[in-house]
Specification:
heterodimer, B: mainly beta
């Protein structure tokens, strides 16, 4: 069974559209993340979320919003897509921060292409 | 904020040893971590250092000096499959303990 799974793996869409990427983890972790990896391979945190707290990277446009129906899921909604949103989006999870030793478990990534 | 610096690219020969350096500046340092990422795949965890010194794990070792804000990843007996990007990441109280990554070092291993 895949520990962290994301769908879709590939997404091609037009500028101005709204899209969502889903993420699910079956590791029982409390904290989930969304990272964006650009064409230069820089992996940048977008959101960190557990059932108590949402931490938002202040550089992330408010067109991006995380939605968590339960602690096993953290979906990413993107409104009014722009060309610069083209990237690979990685979902990840980790144990509670008090015990955190830096091991993130990543999903396979979702490659978003905005035309 | 946090600042993490590592070389963009390195090349090495199969069977050799390579050292990938990482320097960081952060507030409330907690730990330093190394991840490996093959092209088109997700990053995978390699190692972590919380205290100063060397941590060894098979062909890979990672070193940390907190006073110098410095770490390195040492890869021994290089194999072609070690060609990948190596990402240094830091957690700190100043960053809410969220792993912050450097830009990665692309390692090319040639025969």
């Amino acid at each position: 069974d895949t520990a962290v799974s994301q769908t879709p793996k590939y997404l091609v869409t037009q500028m101005g559209n709204d899209k969502s990427i889903k993420c699910e983890q079956n590791l029982g972790h409390d904290t989930m993340y969304w990272y964006k990896q650009d064409s230069k391979k820089f992996l940048k945190i977008m959101f960190s979320y557990n059932n108590k707290e949402l931490i938002i990277n202040e550089t992330v446009p408010n067109r991006f919003s995380p939605k968590s129906p339960d602690k096993a899921h953290l979906n990413l909604h993107i409104n009014s897509l722009e060309l610069g949103d083209s990237a690979v989006y990685f979902c990840a999870s980790s144990p509670p921060s008090a015990a955190f030793i830096g091991e993130l478990f990543f999903g396979e990534g979702s490659r978003l292409t905005v035309l | 904020g946090q600042n993490i610096d590592q070389p963009t690219e390195m090349t090495a020969t199969e069977g050799a040893i390579v050292q990938i350096n990482c320097t960081y500046q952060t507030s409330g340092f907690n730990g330093l971590f190394w991840y490996q990422q093959h092209a088109g795949e997700a990053p995978t965890f390699l190692s972590y250092n919380v205290l100063d010194g060397l941590e060894e794990k098979g062909r890979f070792s990672s070193f940390l000096s907190r006073s110098k804000g410095y770490s390195y990843l040492l890869l021994k007996e290089l194999q072609m499959k070690d060609s990948a990007s190596y990402l240094c990441a830091v957690t700190a109280s100043g960053g809410s303990y969220i792993p912050t990554f450097g830009r990665g070092t692309s390692l090319i291993v040639h025969p």
